[in-house]
Write a structure and sequence with these properties.
The protein has 2 domains: 2-183 and 227-268 and 382-522, Growth Hormone, Chain: A (Up-down Bundle), CATH 1.20.1250.20; 274-369, E3 ubiquitin-protein ligase SopA (Pectate Lyase C-like, 3 Solenoid), CATH 2.160.20.80. Helix content is 61%, strand content 11%. The chain is built from 15 helices and 17 strands. Strands 3, 4, 7, 8, 11, 14 and 17 form a 7-stranded parallel β-sheet that branches. The longest helix is centred in the middle third of the chain and has 39 residues, at 236-274. It is elongated. The model is unreliable at 191-207 (pLDDT under 50).
Length: 532
């Protein structure tokens, strides 16, 4: 269920990127961005109150649709207000705030979400748990941004593309007045703008008495028209090349990131299992357990007149054991199961021993009283979110210097060189993963890998924004963003299946993909001098 919750979010972002991307070229950047942010915020708030898993999935899906549309529209919207000489620097600053947003979420999660499995067990019966508060607060920035967007003007470049020249000139006057208010003497370079002619539109002849159908067909026609223009000449070669680069960058980056998190769990589980104790072929009589029983595996034991009172039983297994005249009172369990066990005259008071924890067991004259209600999911008490917070914090901190440095080099050495060097260095750094055998080394590697990758992400974002004409700019970016999400899902499946195998498999796959992307970069045109 956790996996599907993440997958449904990626599916929603994929649909949102494509949907809002197309709408951005038809309805305008500002209007589309406002709708996407509102969708994200509103459904994010609703998700915090959903009582069932299916409703949570549904609301998270619609919230993710809003998230997916934000990035393509924001980059395009912002780029169309910028002058050519500093466009790369200012667009890179968006990634700086992306990292700041990630830090905000990490710190917020640290303060709100339970940091351990034990805390989750204590709060899991609360209807409005801490994670709901976390979802609710995380939705606030999107709502505030949507409100703020209402005070922004429409993109003047979009207005010119639509033939609304008078509105565009009014926006330019506003921009000039803002600049003069901050820096006297500077003038906005209107000479950079191309004023296009009206685009020819192909209409389908529909009988006038079928208005709704006509509008639906016309909308579908316009959407398909925008998508086909992205792949049509003279954009065909560029689109295919950028699709390859988005795919290689996403597959390599997300694949390694996912593998690192899963492999860290494997190391922790292996260390925990290595400390396990085994007790076999014993008879335990007339004693009481009132302390934590952890990481112990019982096999072929007989318990006679034994009392388990106010005990936490964590990661234990009872295999082929017999319980005679025993008592379980006020018991909490985590990852504990009874297999092929026999219970005679045994009583259970105030426990969370649900039916699924008894596998192929026989109960004779044994009774359950006041079984604890609420969620029956078997929480892992060893799960420590605090460690996940630290990992995420280091990854977000690595983005900040990378985004800042790339903002100064994109306009100097160019987008293509920055992208190529980033993919090459990222690909060459992956083999060093072989040397990382401890958790600390894996976290350090992830920080370095993220730092090297940020340059490439900044560059490909800027290139994808600048390379296309205004009438298909958000559509093309939406397509690339959607492909990125699909690739992330595929990399999750691919790299997730190699966690238990040798490290050489993800190293070879990721390194090969990233270096192949670096070779493809050499065929890209430099876009830093393009008029937007």
């Amino acid at each position: 269920q956790i996996g599907w919750l993440g997958t449904i979010s990626f599916i929603g972002m994929t649909i949102g990127a494509l949907l809002w991307g197309i709408m951005g070229d038809r309805l305008g950047r500002r209007r589309t961005l406002l709708t996407a942010l509102a969708t994200n915020g509103i459904f994010g708030v609703i998700a915090a109150f959903m009582p069932t898993y299916s409703l949570l999935m549904l609301t998270r899906f619609f919230s993710s649709i809003g998230i997916g549309g934000s990035l393509p529209i924001v980059f395009t919207f912002y780029s169309e207000f910028l002058v050519r000489k500093s466009r790369g620097k200012h667009l890179s600053f968006l990634l700086v705030f992306w990292a700041l947003g990630g830090l905000f979420v990490a710190v917020l999660a640290w303060g709100i979400i339970p940091k351990s499995g034990a805390t989750i067990m204590d709060t899991k019966r609360l209807h409005f748990g801490r994670w709901r508060k976390f979802l609710l607060i995380c939705s606030i920035p999107a709502i505030i941004s949507a409100v703020g967007t209402t005070f922004l003007p429409e993109s003047p470049r979009f207005l010119l593309e639509m033939g609304r020249n008078s509105e565009a000139l009014y926006v330019y006057k506003q921009i000039i007045s803002w600049i003069n208010a901050v820096k006297s003497g500077e003038e906005y370079q209107l000479t950079e703008m191309e004023i296009p002619g009206r685009r020819p539109t192909v209409h389908i002849n529909i009988p006038p008495n079928r208005g709704i159908l006509r509008e639906m067909l016309r909308s579908m026609e316009m959407c398909w028209s925008n998508i086909s223009k992205v792949f049509a000449s003279p954009n065909t070669y560029l689109t295919v090349l950028l699709l390859i680069l988005w795919t290689t960058a996403s597959f390599g980056f997300y694949g390694i990131s996912i593998w690192l998190h899963e492999y860290t769990k494997v190391i922790e589980d292996a260390n925990f299992d290595s400390r396990s104790l085994k007790q076999t072929n014993l008879v335990i009589e007339d004693i009481s357990f009132n302390n934590t029983i952890e990481n112990v595996h019982f096999s072929n034991l007989t318990f006679v007149n034994v009392r388990f009172i106010q005990t936490l039983i964590n990661h234990c297994s009872f295999h082929n054991c017999s319980f005679i005249n025993c008592t379980f009172s006020n018991i909490r369990t985590s990852k504990t199961y009874f297999k092929f066990c026999d219970f005679y005259q045994t009583e259970f008071f105030d426990t969370d021993l649900f039916k699924y924890k008894f596998q192929f067991c026989t109960l004779v004259s044994s009774y359950f009283f006041n079984t604890k209600g609420g969620c029956e999911l078997d929480f892992d008490i060893n799960f420590k979110l605090s460690e996940l917070f630290y990992e995420n914090l280091f990854a977000q901190l690595a983005i900040l210097p990378g985004a800042l440095i790339s903002s100064f080099i994109l306009d100097r050495i160019g987008r293509v060189k920055t992208l190529g060097v980033s993919l090459l260095l990222s690909g060459c750094s992956v083999p060093f993963l072989w040397l990382a055998t401890r958790k600390e080394a894996l976290i350090a590697f992830e920080a370095v890998f993220t730092f090297l990758s940020v340059f490439g992400w900044n560059a490909i974002d800027v290139i994808s924004t600048e390379a296309y004409p205004a009438n298909i700019r958000t559509t093309s970016y939406g397509i690339f963003s959607a492909i990125s999400r699909i690739t992330a899902i595929l990399s999750n499946l691919t790299f997730g299946s190699t966690v238990e195998a040798s490290k050489i498999i993800p190293i070879v796959i990721s390194s090969t993909v990233l270096i192949s992307g670096a070779l493809c970069v050499t065929r890209l045109p430099e876009t830093k001098d393009y008029l937007v």
